[in-house]
Amino acid sequence: MPVPDYGVWRAHPVHYNIDHASQDPKSPHLSLYFTETRDKHSDKCHHEYTGSGKEIRGLNRAAINIKSVDKDSRIVYWFNEDLDENHLTDLLADLPRGFHPLGEQQTPDLGLDYIRNNIINIPSGRLLVHDTDTPKNELLDLLEPRMQAAIREHADIYLFGSRSNSNSGSEMHNIHMNQGNMPKYQADDGIFQDGGLIFHFARAKKWIGLFITFTSQSAHTDEQSGHAIGSTTWADFFNEDMKEEHLEGSVAIEEVSVNSRKYQLKNCTEHPLQLASWKIHNSHGEFEKLPSTAKLDAFASEVFEAPKCVLSDQGDNITLLNEKGLKVAGVSYSAQRVKAHSSPLVFAH
């Protein structure tokens, strides 16, 4: 069965703590404390809260993994500061504060999916090793200033994960990828049920997201079950010696014409590619299979028509899968971008 009590919680951050190796050597977390009200804790800084254990009375807690319990304890993280034009932000902006259960919907409405929401640029991911000989932690160096700013500016946060109850309030767990798991955790697999943390700084009109996977998880997952496809894990993907072997990024979606349903694809490799039976998907489950003659010469671009893959002017996700169902490329656009830009929409790579 999928992860329990999955949903998204819109709230305000008010405090955070970080576990170090001496405190929790096996499974350290970053604890982010939050409330649904804007003013109750608005003047407190993160260091003003004290208490025993990890619970703080009157506050809810999100437990964010910064180390895996697997043999390879590293995690991979993406810090996306360009979420403004992702279609998911269209759906989150009007969500009332509080927890919203999403259950086993397996639909792209509000559930987070790293692969199908096209919310991460996979090659930009970074490996994190917790508590090495140096005190430097790249993830925390990036995250702490944003958390401090979010607390100071009363920003909104959107926490995706599993809700559970504690003595002091509610907690959010599984704030990481929840598909493509190793056999031990395969029962948690599912699509559109990934965990993550998204900040919205309303005054600056800025959306920022943190997304985390474990190195043991698969880089490709089944479209229905979320189970791993193939043997390539995130550890393999970020192995410098193997990078050129990976499919992701070999073809880019350069331009999309929303009304005419035309897609410009580019071969990013130095050899020709056959695209027969590759599929272009939208966020509503519709797709168009490319013809048997479809191909791209080395570094060449070509426009393909996909009349069955209808794109929405209210924002959409576009994903390119190869003949084996493995993701090759993906882009996303918001309703605001459609209003602000003339067709075609151009995507930078």
Automatic annotation (TrEMBL):
Which Pfam family, just one, is annotated for this protein?
Answer: DUF2278
Q: Which InterPro entries match?
A: DUF2278, Lamin_tail_dom_sf
Q: What is this protein called?
A: Uncharacterized protein
The organism named in the record is Aspergillus ibericus CBS 121593
